[in-house]
Amino acid sequence: MPISIEMLNLIKETCWSGSTMINDVVSRFDNWSEDDILYASDMIKNISDSNLVNMKDKKIIISNYFNVCIALNIKMRNNDILSNTQLLLNLFESHGKICNLSIVNLSTNIKFDFSGLYFNECHFDNYEDFWKCKFNNETIFNKCHLLNIPSSKKDDIIPLANFRDCLKDKNLEDVFKVNEEYKFNKTERAKIFIDAFFHLFYTNGRLGRQWEDKVILPRFAGIDKSQYGYKSVIRILKGKQVLLISKELNKNKMEIMSYEKKSKELTLIPKYEFYMEYMLEVILLHLPRTEKFSIGTEFKSVMYDTFKNIMFIEKATQKERIYYLNKIDVGLNIQRALLRIMKKNKWIDTKRFDYVMNTLIREIGAILGGLIKYYAKNT
Q1: Alpha-carbon gap, residue 198 to 355, rounded angstroms
Q2: Domain encompassing residue 146
Q3: Does residue 315 have a pLDDT over 60?
Q4: Residue at 295 is within a domain
């Protein structure tokens, strides 16, 4: 169907969002088929390619024609983010990009999922729900016009760098400034809260264990100015292994994970890695040929299994940690026994044996013993 200047002017002058003309058009439709949507897509392309109107008017006409399509889609289908987004893709997607899209003065409560979409040379002007749409870090606006976009405070606002070579007014620039300040203030409020929460555990100038029902829960409301919520805070801190909870007299006692205990766990890995390197390069490599594939192979198997259990500690829950720590302890004891057999049979000399047993394994054992004692008491 050829496009006339009269048709374009009619769309421009009468089909704004929520207009009587749109309501009249929609009332005449009993069906909104895939063929109708394909026809609408062709119409938008023809309008975009037309030389009958200037670029400014063309953007308004495409936006108004899109308003008609949205109204039909809502009547025949749903006004939800999934249905709206599918309509947008059907009308404007070309070769993996959203092209020719124009949204001008669109009424409220029309939202889309922009996640992963690449908008090329599109136009947004006074779209009230722009920031209520969904975005992610793969949402790109390239050479788009974004004007009169209302301000918004939200955590998942996409980076300014995702707006590439776009025409932006002060409104949009202010959104990013406000959100940077909002995120900064939010971080500062979180720091103040964490500091206050930790102080609930202070007794005589040091962190200690506190009863949940007598101390932590009754005082929590007084420090929760940002309304994080008691259950959420406890769940997150426990999951991050910052907060330890143990039973005493059938009641919960809480404790902040000390830096000393955490550092011991972190120190265990490099200590054991150094020990493995020494065993492989200095001890096992120089075993008699007849023993390399017997006791040497068995020693390596136990040594590697022990290292796996060390790596599991960081990922394990508090209750699971004592299980892995005990497995590590058993693994070390087996390695000690195998080393004594090597020494007895003179497959390793006394000096190296003493260094491995009294320095390397002893240091690992001391860290391990402290952790086992700690978790046995607090699990």
Answers
A1: 42
A2: 5-172
A3: yes
A4: yes
